[in-house]
Amino acid sequence: MKKQLVIIGALAATAFSVLGQGYVSYNTTTHRFYDEFTTPGVGIYGNANIDYAVYWAPVGTTDPLTSVGTQFGIANGAANKQVATNGVASISNASSLNATLTGAGFTLGLNGANVASGTIGSAAQGGYGAFQLAGTTAGSTYEFIVVGWNASAGLTAIQNSTYTAIGWSNPFNYITGANSSDPNGQLGLNSTGYMNQFGVAPLGVVPEPTTLALAGLSGASLLLFRRRK
Fold first, then answer.
1. Spatial contact of 128 and 27, defined as CB atoms under 8 Å apart
2. Model confidence, pTM
3. Do the Cβ atoms of 195 and 146 come closer than 8 Å?
4. What's the pLDDT at 164?
5. Where are the domains of the chain?
6. Per-residue confidence at 104, pLDDT binned at 50, 70, 90?
7. What are the φ/ψ torsions at residue 54 (nearest 5 degrees)?
């Protein structure tokens, strides 16, 4: 009898932990993701060529991406439509974005045991759908950042740092829903005050130290040759 009670208690605890996770609607309206890697520096609407994922953290967690790439510019338009990765030809220091975000306290969003990632539609929109975001609590507020990268690298590229183009949204707060019909969890990620549109730009090419050293030696040799002449 005691053994049965223990089993029942364990099952109840498991059911509660699953039901207690927060719901998120991983959807956006059209024209939220810009392709800036097909023609670097020229932003066009993405067309099923950008993958995306969401990172979350406790509210107030410092956004580590504001210091990545000092060359960022802001595209024209309303302030709530602008983010750092819009309108740039390339992005530097973002080759290990997953490590940067997780090191700052953000968690890569999971749907169960799987990464909640998807590919945008032909009208530059995300349509993953509603799901329970693992690790979160229903009815709680979290800080989100949506990340996008070139889809040719595959859905696992964000963990493996194998993408050649990357971009991310502004950080925003989101209230998780208690169930699939809770209005909080049904709000799209780009609802008012949430995710702004953003661009996905190619990674900047940073010369290897050996390349820089060789370039320095070549320059010194040229100067010496000129002096001898």
1. yes
2. 0.78
3. yes
4. 96
5. 19-223
6. very high
7. -120, 140
